[in-house]
Automatic annotation (TrEMBL):
<dbReference type="InterPro" id="IPR004360">
    <property type="entry name" value="Glyas_Fos-R_dOase_dom"/>
</dbReference>
<dbReference type="Pfam" id="PF00903">
    <property type="entry name" value="Glyoxalase"/>
</dbReference>
<feature type="domain" description="VOC">
    <location>
        <begin position="7"/>
        <end position="132"/>
    </location>
</feature>
<keyword id="KW-0560">Oxidoreductase</keyword>
<protein>
    <submittedName>
        <fullName>Ring-cleaving dioxygenase</fullName>
    </submittedName>
</protein>
<dbReference type="InterPro" id="IPR052537">
    <property type="entry name" value="Extradiol_RC_dioxygenase"/>
</dbReference>
<dbReference type="InterPro" id="IPR029068">
    <property type="entry name" value="Glyas_Bleomycin-R_OHBP_Dase"/>
</dbReference>
<dbReference type="GO" id="GO:0051213">
    <property type="term" value="F:dioxygenase activity"/>
</dbReference>
<feature type="domain" description="VOC">
    <location>
        <begin position="126"/>
        <end position="271"/>
    </location>
</feature>
<dbReference type="InterPro" id="IPR037523">
    <property type="entry name" value="VOC_core"/>
</dbReference>
<keyword id="KW-0223">Dioxygenase</keyword>
Amino acid sequence: MLDQIKGLHHVTSMAGSARTNNQFFTDTLGLRRVKKTVNFDAPDVYHLYYGDEVGTPGSVMTYFPFPHIAKGRPGTGEVGSTVFSVPQGSLGYWTDRLTKAGAEGLKADEAFGEKRLHFAGPDGDGFALVEVKDDARAQWTGNGVGADEAIRGFHSASLRLRDDGGTAELLKFMGYEQVDNKDGVLRLGMPGGNGADFIDIETMPNISNARLGAGSVHHIAFAVENREKQLEVRKALMDTGYQVTPVIDRDYFWAIYFRTPGGVLFEIATNEPGFDRDEDTAHLGEALKLPSQHAHLRTELEKHLEPLEG
């Protein structure tokens, strides 16, 4: 069993309008945009990152907004819900805030002894807020959400699968332990993790496969401290039979990718070097930052990319 992985690093999804996406995560959810860059493989498309003040691993939601993308079709073989941690007693505030913002799909419930509020993002994305006692992670309050209500980072993510066996076995190999199994949901947790510690597996044997599109999670990333730990994980996964990509430099972290038995794309990402490698912390996410191979496209991209504000 591996001991290098320390919980979630980031979750990357697809969107339609970049401006709408930016407004929702900064104005409605109160997160900070910590990086404005472009897709490495499609530089005419933004890659937007939202999180806490510095984009701490375990807090970062990222998006590829394609202006004319079709809506995704929910199903199995994908991340169903991305769940954020909020302080105890704050769900009433969030219910009011999300209602005023016109968010759809609001539903309160309780699972594994935790109060939750489900809601949909602007492209139908599945989200929830969970009240967590004594989550000591730093919050970002720069966008008008108070310290007593602000998101602390991820709590968990749910995977929708036809069968949980292979993926549950993989997650246990990655260091997760079974916490509970209730109402058809298997909960796995990361002991000594970074706070973004849980993965829930929903088994849906009669549901068709998901179709990627706006509102779909593209991949889910798990955190390791550095490149040395990442290489240890890569070797162990390959020795177990997984087809793992070479290490890819993503400017703000190094990444490896592999496909799980249930069809979900997993990434292992380093905590280093972080989002302040090319911007001062006080100005994260303000300027358009381009990967070096796309720097020559700046003039055209600045004309083409949708303005995020205004």
